[in-house]
Design a protein that fits this description.
Elements (H helix, E strand, L loop, with lengths): L1 H29 L3 E3 L5 E3 L6 H23 L3 H15 L5 E3 L5 E2 L1
Parallel strand pairs: 1-3
Antiparallel strand pairs: 1-2, 3-4
Length: about 110
């Protein structure tokens, strides 16, 4: 029981961290400093103060969430990330860096 509670706390903390970073990530995307990779993770695309730290923290939390989604769906974290990437790409504002499934980048 303690393990499942600790795991639930980790997932909850990851989701909370992701919510708290939305504005910072949106600003970095608008500046062209970060983009959404086809893996569901953020990728650095340019230089901006604090971008690397934001990307590192966001990607760590996304990995926790993808692992949880994989457990719930019977898939892999990679599949969960790829699905997330497709959803993000479909909802992204124009001008945001996105990575195609073939690895190419576009805005």
């Amino acid at each position: 029981l303690a393990v499942s509670v600790a795991h639930a706390d980790a997932v909850s903390a990851a989701k909370s961290g992701m919510r708290q970073r939305v504005a910072a990530i949106d600003a970095l995307k608008a500046a062209g400093a970060v983009g959404e990779a086809n893996t569901g993770l953020l990728a650095l695309r340019g230089a901006a103060d604090g971008a690397a730290q934001v990307v590192e923290a966001e990607n760590a939390d996304r990995r926790v969430v993808f692992a949880e989604l994989a457990k719930k769906t019977g898939g892999t974290p990679e599949q969960a990330g790829a699905t997330f990437a497709r959803q993000i790409a479909a909802a992204s504002k124009p001008g945001v860096w996105l990575q195609r499934e073939d690895g190419g980048w576009y805005k």
